[in-house]
Design a protein that fits this description.
The protein has two domains: 91 residues, 2-Layer Sandwich (Alpha-Beta Plaits), CATH 3.30.70; 78 residues, Alpha-Beta Plaits. The protein contains five helices and ten strands, in the order ααβαββαβββαββββ. Strands 2-3-1-5-4 form a five-stranded antiparallel β-sheet. Strands 7-8-6-10-9 form a five-stranded antiparallel β-sheet, with helices on one face. The model has no long low-confidence stretch (mean pLDDT 86).
Amino acid sequence: MESKEENEMRVAALCKSLGHLWSEEDVVQVSDEIPQHKREECSRTLFGKLYSKPNANYPAFVTTMKKAWKTEVVICSQKEPGLFSFLFPTEEEKQRIKRNSPWSYSTNLIVLKQCLPEVPEHCYDFTKEEFWVRIGGVPPGWRIEKVFNELGKRVGNVKEAQIDSTTNVQNRGGRVRVEIDLTSPLKLGAIMDIGNSWLWVEYKYERLPHYYFSCG
């Protein structure tokens, strides 16, 4: 989201380009306070955008997402082709959906963003999404949160790290939740420099939708 200074510069440039098509009388002063019920409504709302293929059958999309989310009470509205708003009945229900993201429709990634009461729909950045990335190949002695955080930073902005329990018979190391730039190729792994040797560790992305392996 742009800063206050950037916003003021953009508006000033727009007004200059309009010339005599606007005047100071066209400035509408609104209250500094957003009504509480609107804030609560925004808090329970997510915007979702189909990342690669915006054209989708709207009724089929809504039916599919309600089944996937196991809810019938979400209110879905289509803002434009491929851009939707989802109003949930409770904050807990919204958090459940966001926590279990990413979601996809017909192998097409749905990028979800929290609604902010001061920001128009077209100002959101839908080029980033959070994924759980499982990291395999880390030696047992180095399976600590600090190491997984450092390895996760090679993928994107680390939000959380989880180390597998040693009592888990399927112990594979751990995973990190990372905000990934969708405009960049996905990394397949990294090299751990542990002093006397280099080790290759592998990244596996959970709930990864349609993906081009040839270009990343």
